[in-house]
Amino acid sequence: MTQSSAELSAAAVIPLIESGAYPREVVLTIARGYLPLGQEDLIAVLAYLCSSPDSEIADTAQAALSDVPTRIVVAVAASEATPGDHLAMLMKASRDPVVLEAAIRNRTTPDDAVVELAGRAEAAVQEVIVINQARILRAPEILMALLDNPRLTPDSRRRALETREEFFEKVKHQTEDGEIVEEEAIAIEPLDEIADLLELADQQPETTTQAVGAADLNEVEKKDDKTKAVWARIQVMGVAEKVLLAFRGDRMVRMLLVRERNKLVCTAAMRNPRMTPNEVESIAGMRNVEEEVLRIIAMRREWMSKYPIMSAIVRNPKAPVGLVVPLINRLVLRDLKGLKDDKGVSEIVRLTARRFYLARTQK
User: What is the maximum span of the chain, computed from C-alpha positions, in angstroms?
Assistant: First the structure.
């Protein structure tokens, strides 16, 4: 080896190994970890050598990689500064579920690497893959590879099938001989509108969040069995799953998730392209939604141009005062009269309504 220690890096060493520039004995020495490299570069080189066609080199590199403290390997797998090709090599080399989970959650990891892993992953890793719906929607091949995995557990299969049913459809086309065939799954809705929400959801812990407040539970219990079933399913979803469902769901789903305490989820519900003005009017009058929902409504010109929606926002005590006050002068006299005496709204809103009412009636 002619390079100085300062020049050594995985990016420099791996191409030299690949080209045959090093004798086998030198490569075997490298596989033992005897190379003055930083931890990240050493892990990348060892991961690369784990796939060597020379079984002795591959086994030696695997043993050396296993000797690296797990916390260090996990830190490399989780770092977005780690090059994507290094992460892909590490995913092929590692059998540690903790390392693989860190790499799967890393946005720098190439989707192709997750596709390859999905086809052979063990139970613990399958679960991590199937709940990462933002990545699955970006690369549906992950879901198909997972479903083809002969080791797929019943629980992971159920979740994978639910994801396919909820977010994907098959594209059908006719062959030259007239046969109708299905191509690979594609996302039903473009996700550009919620890309920012999905990115933020990926950064949150995969824990379930409360879909409705305790005060809403009685209302849910009064609904039909379908609503109860959907609500029960929502309770076990992670944040990213709820964001996707809120953006794609039907009216019943939207009206449940718009009351979600997590702002990413309720925002996704408001961005649902199927949201109708009648729904917005109902939501504008809700007192059990986050302020962010009312702020979103108030910022949409096409919604606020409709008088029933605008007046519902004004009368909602949950709406931020800064949004409400500029709208009060748009109310008709009858609504101004009611608002000036409404003890349910803030004093500032009542006083402003009274001022506008008197100004109009004393002309």
Answer: 100
